[in-house]
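Two proteins follow. First one:
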Amino acid sequence: MKSLINRIDQWIHRYKQLQKIIDKETRVKGVTKSVLGGLLISVLILLIPALAVINMFIYTKLTFFLAMLLSIMVILWPYLYYSIYFRLLKVYYPKLNDVNTRIPLVMEATLISIVLTVIVITVLSTLF
């Protein structure tokens, strides 16, 4: 158990260090472009499958399965967004190509996915 706590502590320490490096290299203009670009591209990527799933709700026997599929898409969306966001940051700031952005990607996307999971469970429990 102590080993797990130490690994989590080391992971958080590495996350904070990498976040400081990323914050030191970036500026507001580039981050704004990356955020807006990440949102636009990730929404466009998920728009077609989401619309297809939503249109299939006319089949009443598949309602629960489609709701679960839509929920999985919502929960996995932050990982897609943050991967695009960090990729765009690396395009705007070439110095970040040497920085390991996997740790901040996993950390931030996991936190948002946990929040979205709670929201999805609440909505699904009220609907079904």
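Second one, unrelated to the first:
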Amino acid sequence: MKWSDAELIEEYNSGNLDAFHLFYERYKDILFTFIYNRCREEANDLFQETFMKFIDAAKKKKIENPKSYLFQIAMNLVRNLGRNAKVVSLSDDFDIPNYDDEQDDLISEESLHESLKQLAQEKPLFYDILHLHVFAKMTFNEIGKLKGKSKDTIASRYRYAIHFLRKILKDELDKAKEVNYA
């Protein structure tokens, strides 16, 4: 039987420590990646603090969507850490997803990395949506609950983020296409 996140948290509150272990194993990697890509040096501390705050909250109240709640805690901690810094900092080792689309092979990893940095600086709302969907593997529904917006609004912002990236990378794509068709 595969347990839902909410069922795992209920079981944990009933004293079943294995239930929380299953929940932790389910989200530890994507949560750490999410935090690490936003604040490299403090990632370990924020990761641990996120789960501590989550456990405290789970003991005090019923959490409807544990995954979204977990990521909201992490997002708040990252924001609190960088309140004075408006720019999202990405590490040099930023993990670029590997897509099968031919056009993506035409774009260098460095160019994609730079365009993501530019998106984070110029359009942080769009970057957040793109990051949560692509790297944290959250659905538009989950992101909508996390952000307090409709899934349609989230999907629209995601499309805007993709459009922004395409616009930035247009020159490189055009050059690569010319080389391939020549």
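SUMMARY FIELD: The mean pLDDT is 80. Residues 5-81 form a domain with the Rna Polymerase Sigma Factor; Chain: A fold (CATH 1.10.1740.10).
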